[in-house]
Amino acid sequence: MAKLVGGLATSHVPSIGAAIDHGRTDDPYWKPLFDGIQPAREWMDRVRPDVVIVVYNDHASRFGMDVTPTFAIGVGDTFAPHDEGYGPRPVPACEGAPGFAWHLVESLVLKDEFDVTIVSDMTVDHGLTVPLSLAFGQPSAWPCRVIPLCVNVIQYPQPTARRCFRLGEAIRRAIDSFEPDLRIAIFGTGGMSHQLQGERAGLINAPYDQMWLDQMVTNPLALTEIGHTELLREAGSEGLEIIMWLVMRGAMDATVREVHRFYHVPASNTAYGLLALENAEGL
Ligand code: DHB
Ligand code: FE
């Protein structure tokens, strides 16, 4: 049977990808961040997922403002990095996992009534590629197959925190009902506090971020009660991305073991946060 072997939450700041791509990870500005995430890379090396479900948001890259799926799943064979204006990142294309992706879609739609958008042809932007680079470094091919799962966090009305957690619970039911022996990990990306626009651009709220990191481990249900107005006020307009962490947390057991935690300010204009979680009963 398939098994959920780990959950990773990480911000997906594009300048982290640029630092990796341009060989700047030992620069004084970046070294503390890359030192801080190293234990998560070593953990991923031990966890060795066959497939990673990456929960992220498309930043008006593959989907323009003309089409905004609330939840979308990539069922294709391959996903190339999107050109976000400076050429595509020099990272490998992701190999998809269509067999499991179709099972996931079927289970979500027919068993759990999550009517996700099915995407057979898509490119993936920094929201997905930066977390892969953080987890796996710079291999010539990603060491696992990838299922992109997009959440709308950019166009009103975004799904609620509770809906994201429930999507995670439904994803777990799909994992647990997939017969082939597959080791599956799930990444929740985006956040932490940040605002890229307007008068409050550059907003960082470290105490609020710390509260999220704590509650993600011990009391995620409390986070599912948080509304968008609080998130906008406390975490900034783009800080709302943090609801995607709850998809990951909803898929994990109620009780988890914190393998690694890291928080760093700033990464460009953004607070960077990472949590590596395992189900309490282990691998
Ligand atoms: C930036 C962009 C993002 O999508 C994000 O999640 C954090 C930071 C940026 O452009 O700096
Ligand atoms: Fe983002």
In a few lines, what is going on in this structure?
The chain has 283 residues and is α/β, with parallel strands linked by helices. Helix content is 35%, strand content 22%.
Structural class: alpha/beta
What letter string, H or E per element, gives the SSE order? EHHEEEEHEHEHEHHHHEE
Strand content: 15-25%
Q: Please count the helical segments.
A: 9
Name the strands of the widest sheet in spatial order: 6-3-7-2-8-1-10-9
Radius of gyration: 17 Å
User: Separation of termini?
Assistant: 13 Å
Helix amount, in percent? 25-40%
Largest sheet: 8 strands, mixed
- Strands, count: 10
Task: Identify every distinct bound molecule in the structure, by name, code or SMILES.
Answer: 3,4-dihydroxybenzoic acid, fe (iii) ion
User: Which regions contain 5 or more consecutive residues with pLDDT less than 50?
Assistant: none
Rounded average pLDDT: 97
Name the shape in a single word.
globular
Structure report:
The radius of gyration is 17 Å and the shape is globular. Helix content is 35%, strand content 22%. The two termini are 13 Å apart. Helix 1 (14-21) crosses helix 4 (126-136), helix 3 crosses helix 5 and helix 5 runs parallel beside helix 9 (243-251). With 283 residues, it is of the alpha/beta class. The chain is built from nine helices and ten strands. It has helices at 14-21, 31-47, 98-111, 126-136, 161-176, 206-218, 220-223, 228-235, 243-251; strands at residues 3-10, 51-56, 71-74, 78-79, 94-95, 117-119, 145-151, 183-189, 256-267, 270-279. The strands form two sheets. It has an eight-stranded mixed beta sheet with strand order 6-3-7-2-8-1-10-9, with helices on both faces. A two-stranded antiparallel ribbon has the order 4-5. The model has no long low-confidence stretch (mean pLDDT 97). Bound molecules: 3,4-dihydroxybenzoic acid (DHB) and fe (iii) ion (FE).
